[in-house]
Amino acid sequence: MDQKILSLATEKTAEKLQEFLQCLKDDELTGLLQKHAVKGKSPGALLKGIFKGSPCSEEAGSLRRLKVYKYCIQLVESGDLHREVASEITGLLMLEAHSLPGSSLVELANGFVDVVREGSLVNGKSLELLPIILTALATKKENLAYGKGELNGEEYKKQLINTLCSSRWDQQFVIQLTSMFRDVPLSIEELEFVVEKVLRLLSKLDLQEIPPLVYQLLLLSSKGSRTKVLEGIIAFFSQMDKSHNEEQCGDDVHSWDHVTQGLVELGFILMDSYGPKKILGGKTTEASLVPSKTPSQQACRLGANILLETFKIHEMIRKEIVEQVLNRVVSKASSPISHFLDLLSNIIIYAPLVLQSCSSKVTEAFDYLSFLPLHTVQGLLKAVQPLLKVSMSMRDSLILVLRKAMFANHLDARKSAVAGFLLLLKNFKILGSLSSSQCSQSIGATQVQVDVHSRYNSVANEAFCLEILDSLRRCLGQQADVRLMLYEGFYDVLRRNSQLANSIMHTLLIQLKQYYEPKHDLLPPLKLEACILAQGDQIFLQEPLAHLLCCIQHCLAWYRNKVMPEEEEEEEGFQQDLEDMLESITIRMIKSELEDFELDKSADFSQATSVGIKNNIYALLVIGVCEVLIEYNFTIGNFSKNKFEEVLSLFKCYNRLSDILKEKAGKGKSTMVNKTVRSFLSMKFVSALLVALFRDSSQSHEESLSVLRSSNEFMRYAVNVALQKVQQLEETGQVDGPDGQNLDRIFQNLCEITRVLLWRYTSIPTSVEESGKKEKGKTISLLCLEGLQRIFHTVQQFFPSKIHQFLRALDITNEDEEEEDVNITQRATFQIRQFQRSLVNLLSCQDDDFNGKEALLLVTILSSLSKLLDPSSPQLMQMLSWTVKMCKENSLEDASFCKGLMNLLFSLHVLCKSPVSVLRDLSQDIHGQLGDLDQDIEVEKPNHFAMVNLKTAAPTVCLQVLSQAEKVLEEVDWLITKLKGHLGQETLSEEASQEVSLNQTLEKAAILQLGTLLTAFHELVQTALPSGSCVDSLLRNLSKIYTILTALVKYYLQVCRTSGGIPNRMEKLVKLSGSHLTPQCYAFISYVQNIQNESLSVAGEKKKEKTAAVTTAMARVLRETKPIPNLIFAIEQYEKFLIHLSKKSKVNLMQYMKLSTSRDFRINGDILDTALQEQETDEENERMTDQTVASEQRKDDDSQEPAKKKRKKK
């Protein structure tokens, strides 16, 4: 019989197959299926044949399919089938589910619901089919019988999900059911049903089932309701902790052994899901130096803490944790993995000896170093560094990998090798002395024996470091990028491992001699041609000479300060040689003209020719060398006048060449300095230089410093470099040069620089400086102010724990007074008042002298400093009052300054109270400035804020108002959600009165906020706003306020079920919306349509001249009118639920709502066809039609304007 079905199924037509199946009884058909399935005879072919002979278009075929489905579901659920057979049957049922009629789908879905409700599931395998059935059901548009009524497929699916979530779930199938819902398309409301159901079940499960269920919940939250899921999980664990603490637990460690695996999974899920992400431009979403603040950062940190604590307590799981962390470091190298590297570092620091058991996993990770990004290599090697001190085999493995990488084809691999070797040199300190003659010997790492019981083994480390240095010397013949890494790393090695000084200094001396012209009468003193490499027509930088000199001068400075006099006598040869060479280079660089470097104004600097590329490289080398020599000669000069004259001469050379490059770039000739080249000056030197130039009042220094102070360009250059260093810190968290990653040193330098910039700006204001000689570029005072603005932001970002110390360092007037009693708010207020005075003085200048950039910088600084004030302090209220006064009294027409001041106003206002009253006043000012929709009506100008004028009203102030209104609406939405949550909670009798009182307070707050916002929108919606962002934003905000009004109405619908009434203030709010908003909304919609029609008309007239104008105009119209249907829908939803609330509360709320004909819209096919053909023909007909429709709508809407308006007719 089964063979007959299979043979008939192979025929082209299914008529004979249908006739044969019609003759079979139900028992015979199911018997065949059972025989094939249970015996593992691949029932797939038989099922396909039955489905082919049972078309859904015929009633008999449809019924047969339904019976087959029911029987197959029973078979799969019975547990009698092999896994492969069950999967094959389930897969075929899934494929055919969408062809089933709606009634069959309903019967199958109800069957599943009944099975779950009755708790008769056996293994849950059949649940894989339920998502497909529900999805197919949702697509059915026909009405299906439900009780005494009818529902379409989507509504029926919703009822089934509701029933399913209301039923009791067997404990052993909770995880499967939760996983099942991930594949079901759910609306927001349905998803909330499911999430609430699963969260309620958390407390009923065994401990070992909680982690996998939390995992499924987190995956389910990708559909939405993330906040609800996280809050529910946190609440459950908080309650669990509370219960756990109340119990007396004998063995805390072993009692959690059975859930350890789940904890590890949870930890990695949190770190994977909420770790830093890569965004546009290759940057990450967060910096590792910044403390965790966002929910994502805190969730990631929680995952890391779970894994670290689990590692500490449970020995059996340690190897798996380390393995998974290393797998992620290697496999996710292209993504941000700093959080995993931090975890690995913490694990190793906790137990380096314990991790020797996992050494094989670490050495496996070393094999991938050549393929990993440089920052990942540096992070990984830094993390495993403690292991290298206790494991000789691991260190040997690393050296072999780094040696291979040093000669790899890929440049990144070679750079990784250099980074690895430098890191090893920094961390394996030598306690004994080293002679330079030993530097050339090569000792194999396998010969080194490590004493794991001592912190350092001097002999072993000495041999180890010598071997590494020998390998690194070979890198000095490789590409410029590799050499650059060496030069930038040698100083840190010298400082951390001082016994390597002689070897490193000799290496640098030998390297410099290759590019140094030994004859003192020859110019220039450096062989620039040896620094480049020509390959055919291409020119490359081979030797980063400026970086080499920079490394030498920093190493020399360290050597002079650290080496003892007797040691200096022994080894002064290389030191003297280097100092003599630098002195000779300085003198000859000053004597050299640009022509000596083959660089002058007539030189070619384009990137299109090899000569131009060569000249660009030469220019950058000369500029860098000049900067290095400036720092070197200033440092060794000891305030010598002659040395400072040399410094100024070097700067003039630097400046001449910089000007030439800027001039070439300005003329459109592409150069390599279109972007600002990073300065070679160290941050420590920049700090000392600024102090000397602006704050040094010593008589003995006056003569020498006057040389440098005579050059305004040099002082501007010094401030510019300081600004560049702060900007680099702000963007990357570190700076170039010595101690560039030492945040403590950076902070000290920042404090010093800030003191100087603050003194310079307050002592010589921009207005005074500009009244003197006019020079190109920004003034020094303006540069100082820009630096201060960046520093105040950067300090709060990277040094939040040192704010008090920072402010104390700036207060140079009260150094001797007791500091303990002065808090951050008081210190910040002192600085705020200085900048307030500066802004007031600036605004009191005449219009010609007003500097908009300076004003904006001052406002930005005030915004930064205001964040340091205690929100409850009187100082914050004083600053708010001052800001309000500034906005009310100043009528500047500078849009950027106005935006900054408004931002400051709102940021302060929200800390004290809701800004809705300010928004209302600003909206009235905007209405007064821009005029009414009806041009025949003149609007009274209330002039609450002088800052709102014709130039700033739109888009600047208008967008600020709408942005702030949106934030208020979000807060009100959250408030209403909280109120809804209170309704579902059961409270004790003594708490009931407090609950009612709290709810009434929250209700009052929400209604007052909405009422005041409504009056603000009443003004804006009647304002003749220009087409563009203001209109778009206002339409979106209007949709949002109606959505929130609807949510409030729904809340009172729930309230009415218990109390039976609504408060008077709610009735007043509804009345206000009906009289002061809804009619005006329809009038505004007509206004928007009219201005869009006008823009289309203008574009159509210019069509013959420029066809693109029509396309652009139409695109803009489509974009700006898109929110209109959403707004109309939101209004209709609001009115729909108002009708329900009127019935429930017995109050006729709809008496305040007036219906408008313009709300009735539909797609007209003829007009649409005409519109689509307009781009090729003519637009006149459509424009006339649109104008006619708009005028009719205008007539309808004019009759619905509110009776009272604050305006008068001409």
Write structural notes for this entry:
- The protein has 1210 residues and is mostly helical.
- It folds into five domains: 1-243; 260-278 and 288-432 and 457-506, Leucine-rich Repeat Variant (Alpha Horseshoe), CATH 1.25.10; 678-814, no CATH class; 822-912; 959-983 and 996-1097 and 1109-1157.
- Helices cover 67% and strands 2% of the residues.
- The protein contains 50 helices and six strands.
- Strands 1-2 form a two-stranded antiparallel sheet.
- Strand 1 (144-146) and strand 2 form a beta hairpin.
- Helix 7 (102-118) runs parallel beside helix 9 and helix 32 packs parallel to helix 35.
- The N and C termini lie far apart (96 Å).
- Residues 285-289, 432-456, 564-570, 669-674, 1157-1162 and 1181-1210 have low confidence and may be disordered.
